[in-house]
Amino acid sequence: MDFKKYLSTNDKTFTIDMTALVDIAFIIILFLGIVASLAPVSVIDVELPKASLKAKETKPLKISVDKRGDYYINRRKVTDKEIAQYLKQKKEKQLVILADKDVKFERVVHLMDIAKMNGIEEINIATRSQR
Questions:
Q1: Among 65, 68, 73, 127, who pairs with 99 as Cys (CB 3.0-4.6 Å)?
Q2: 93 and 65 in contact (C-beta within 8 Å)?
Q3: Does residue 32 lie within any of the structural domains?
Q4: Within a domain: residue 114?
């Protein structure tokens, strides 16, 4: 096809403006560069060295709180002083509170205060997932 006949000038050289094509190519390169830098670290193949000691597996301490706000350790009703002694004796850093959904919030906070005063660094409240 002869496109030169559609030109209005006498200049018969035909040129294509490449500005839009260069802009699109630049945006694609930029996009690929950003996406490549977001690759997860877990895809890196790393062979870990072996250690002679096993990591200490700690089980968190568990204290239950019933509807009335009474505290239980291993199904035995305990007082605030007994909780403090228990936490000091075990020397663990994690505590899981198994509180009834109807217990007053202040009883759970009181238990958290006792735990913090006796060396507990991490406190979790157990929940049940909805299905």
A1: 65
A2: no
A3: no
A4: yes
pTM: 0.56
* Domains: count for the chain: 1
CATH number of the domain within which 73 lies? 3.30.420.270
Using the structure block, give the residue that is written with the tokens 């006792």. 114
Whole-Å CA distances, 33 to 20, 30, 45, 73? 20, 5, 22, 56
Is residue 96 in a domain?
yes
**Full domain range(s) for residue 105:** 61-125
pLDDT digits (tens, 9 = 90+) for 113-131: 999 998 888 999 888 876 6
Domain presence at residue 100: yes
Report pLDDT digits (tens) over 2-21: 666 666 666 666 677 888 89
Q: How deeply is 118 buried, as exposed, middle or buried, from its count of CB atoms within 10 A (0-12, 13-18, 19+)?
A: middle
pLDDT tens string 39-91 = 665 555 666 678 777 666 678 889 999 999 999 998 899 999 999 999 988 88
